[in-house]
Amino acid sequence: MALTVGITFDLKQSYPKELKSSADADCELDSMETIAAIAAALERNRNRVIKIGNAREVIKFIEKIKPDIVFNISEGILGRNREAQIPAILEAYQIPYTGSDPLTLSLCLDKSMAKKVISYSNIPTPDFKKISEAEEIQELHEMEINFPLFIKPCYEGSSKGIRLDSKIKNISELKKKTFELLATYRQPVLIEEYLPGSEYTVGILGTKKPEVLGIMEVKSTSKSEEELIYSYEIKKDWENRVQYICPPPISPQLESAIKKVAIDSFKALECRDVARVDIRLDKYGTPNFLEINPLPGLMPGYSDLYIMAKSVGMDYDVLINKILFSAIERYPHLRINDTRNLMT
Ligand SMILES: Nc1ncnc2c1ncn2[C@@H]1O[C@H](COP(=O)(O)OP(=O)(O)OP(=O)(O)O)[C@@H](O)[C@H]1O
Ligand SMILES: [Mg+2]
What we know:
Elements: E1 4-8, H1 32-44, E2 48-53, H2 55-65, E3 69-72, H3 85-92, H4 102-109, H5 111-120, E4 128-131, E5 149-153, E6 167-168, H6 171-185, E7 189-193, E8 199-205, E9 211-220, H7 232-236, H8 238-241, E10 242-245, H9 252-268, E11 274-281, E12 287-293, H10 304-311, H11 316-328, H12 332-337
This protein binds adenosine-5'-triphosphate and magnesium ion.
Adenosine-5'-triphosphate binds next to strand 5, strand 11 and strand 12.
C-alpha cells in the first residue's frame, strides 16, 4: 500500500526580513530544488507526496491533510528549539515523522548541551565554556584551556557566525570576537579548545543498529593554509577552496576510531534515522566530537550525504527512501500496511 508522505521544510525565501541580523541569516534553510528532489525520490517509490512547508503551515493544514508520515527537514527560524517545533506539533497529533525527536533535536542544536552528554559518555570532545553575557568574559582567566581557542555561536549551523578569524590567539581577540558574536547572533557563544588536526564528517543511517554511510575528509585546497577552518566564507566558495575526499586514505585504526566516535555520539544523543557527525583530530591524532547534525543537508548533487551515498554506489532515491524506511520501522501500523521493499 502506498503512503501519503508530507514534507516539512523552511525555505530560504521565507526567512523573515525583520529578523535578518547578519548576511548569513538564512544560510541553514533549504531551496525549493531540494524539496522537489526529495518529493520526486519519494514518489518514485510509490508514495503520494504533499509539500506542507513550515511550522505555521503545519498548524494550518495538518488536520486537513492527515499524512501517514511526515518527512521532516525543517530547520526552524529562531531559538535553540527551532528544529524541535514541527516534530513536537506532530507528536501532539500523533503523526509519525522521520528523524530525531524534539528532545534530541534541541539537545544537538545547542552545542554546549550536546557536549555535556558527549563528555558524560566518555567520547573525546574539546574542553569548552558557554558565555551568555559579555560580563562573563572576566571569568575567562579561570579557564583551564589554553590558546589557541575556537569561538562560535552556540546554536547555529552551516557555519553561521564562523569566519576565518574564529580561531583565537589571545585575550584581546577573544574579547572582541565574543562581543561581536553576542551582539550579532543574539545567543550564547561557545568557546572551546582549538583542534589542529584533519577534519572528517561522518554520515549515519538507521536507528537501532545505526550504520556509517561514509566518512569524508574535508581538506583545504590552499597550500599556505595548512589547517582548514571550514568557515562561512569557505563553505560559500567550496568549489575553489576545499576538496572532499570520500573515502579518505586513512589507516584502518583511524577509520575505526572515527567510526566509533560517530556511532557512539549518535547513540549517546539518541538520534534516529539519519545524522552527520563532524569530527576533528586533536594534537595527539585522536578523533574528537565537534558537533552532530540530526537534520543534515540533503541537497542532491552537493550535500555531504549525497557524496557519501554516491561513493558506495547508492543513488539519491535510495538514500531518501532509506531514511523513510528507517522511520517506518518505529510505527507498527505503517509497517504492516507497507508491503513495498526498499528500492535498490
Ligand atoms: N574546536 C574547534 N577547533 C578547530 N576547528 C573548529 C572547532 N570548532 C569548529 N571548527 C571549525 O569550524 C567549522 C564549523 O564548525 P561547526 O561544525 O561547529 O559549525 P556548524 O555551523 O554547526 O557546521 P554545519 O555546517 O556542519 O552545520 C568546523 O567544520 C571546523 O572546521
Ligand atoms: Mg559542522
